[in-house]
Amino acid sequence: MIGRVLVIAGSDSGGGAGIQADIKSISALGAYAASAITALTAQNTLGVHGVMEVSPEFIEKQINVVLDDIGADCIKTGMLHESMVIETVVRALERKANNIPIVVDPVMIAKGGASLLNTEAIVTLREELVPRATLLTPNIPEAEAILNRKLKGRDDMQAMGEELFDLGPKAVLLKGGHMEGPIVWDFLISNDGSRFFQNERIATSHTHGTGCTLASSIAAGIANGLTIEGAVTQAETFLNKAIQTAPGIGKGHGPINHLHTVRSS
Asked: Catalytic annotation on 112?
């Protein structure tokens, strides 16, 4: 049976991030994607130009009807922009998906710099959702916001990952793409141990949606029966190729090539 992923996240009208990137990534890796949309964004490669929130009641209804009928083998969360939305999602998952793995991508800032999470909601995220995560996938700025401290350099990545792990998730993938240097380092820690992933940095401005893509790709792997480490390994390879073959669309931070597994360009 095909793995099923329910994505709870915002929509990106430009198609490079959010629900659109999630659905493309999950589908390209051979899993089935369903969605509960938390917000609509008017967005392109130059930035976020507007946000329209979806009511918490309707977000919960989307989650309920998908899980009652289609079900899920993994759940991935993305843009949850305020405390009430986070609390609603946590409540719905406790009722309907207590035993389903959850990949939590703590989306806070868009590629162009726009804030996608209210400051006061960071505490709610840290206390209510992070401890329930099967895998937490923050980038460096998100990890700094969750822990309320700055990264001191690559040698500090392991300590920061361990601090995030101590908040209660079963595993943490701390993404190092915001650090400078020719190599991008990501740090994975779980009860099974820890390791670094490394990829050569690709010189390109077309990296919009990489965080969403990586998290949803991991969710697809978990839904299809891979271990966390196996799913992360597959997703890292998928994302690297997607960046390498980005189509060059837009005037700003363009999208990556989510469909490289089903077409050559």
From this structure: no
Summarize the chain as % helix, strand, coil (round to 5). 40, 25, 35
Laid out side by side, the sheet with 32-44 consists of 47-53, 32-44, 4-12, 74-77, 102-104, 135-136, 171-175, 183-190, 193-200
Catalytic residue at 45?
Answer: no
Rounded to whole angstroms, the Cα distance separating 134 from 231 reads 12
Rg (CA), the chain: 17
Which one of 14, 18, 176, 209 is the catalytic residue?
Answer: 209
DSSP H helices in 71-124: 83-96, 121-124
Q: Which CATH superfamily is domain 4-244 in?
A: Ribokinase (3.40.1190.20)
Q: Of the listed 41, 207, 213, 221, which one is catalytic?
A: 207
Q: Is 170 a catalytic residue?
A: no
Neighbours of 31 (CB within 10 A): 22
Active site residue 211: yes
Give yes or no for residue 28 having a pLDDT over 90: yes
| Greatest extent of the chain over all pairs of C-alpha atoms, in Å | 47
25: which 2 tokens? 């990534």
Residue identified by tokens 């792990």 is: 165
pLDDT tens digit string along 240-265?
A: 999 999 999 999 999 999 999 987 54
Spot the catalytic one: 45, 134, 175, 254. 175
Sketch the domain layout of the chain as residue ranges.
4-244
Beta strands in the chain, from DSSP E residues, in sequence order: 4-12, 32-44, 47-53, 74-77, 102-104, 135-136, 171-175, 183-190, 193-200
Which of the residues 10, 211, 221, 254 is marked catalytic?
211
pLDDT for the residue 103: 98
pLDDT at 263: 72
